[in-house]
Amino acid sequence: SDARMSAHAGCNRMGGEHKLDEKSLKIKFSNVFSTKMACENMETEDELSKVLSITDNYYFDGNLLKFNKGKMATLAEFVIIK
Q1: pTM of the model
Q2: Mind listing the pLDDT tens digit for each residue in 20-64?
Q3: Is 9 exposed, middle or buried (0-12, 13-18, 19+ CB in 10 A)?
Q4: Of 70, 40, 36, the residue nearest 55 (C-alpha)
Q5: What residues form DSSP beta bridges with 17?
Q6: How far is CA 28 from the centre of its chain?
């Protein structure tokens, strides 16, 4: 509700803001930042950072969240773990 976002992909914490339009399924992430701890494997974090910078729409069915760019293939998929 406060338009803030946070993420963790293994080592560093990420945060920022998002603008969401649930009607059109549009999303835009902005002011994304990350802590800068040196980690052995940064590939996942680097990829997540790229995904957040280019995602412009999403799909969510209550269990699966997909981030997309335009009508191209899905950039990332997340599953809710209960």
Answers
A1: 0.83
A2: 999 999 999 999 999 988 888 888 888 999 999 999 999 999 999
A3: middle
A4: 70
A5: 4, 30
A6: 9
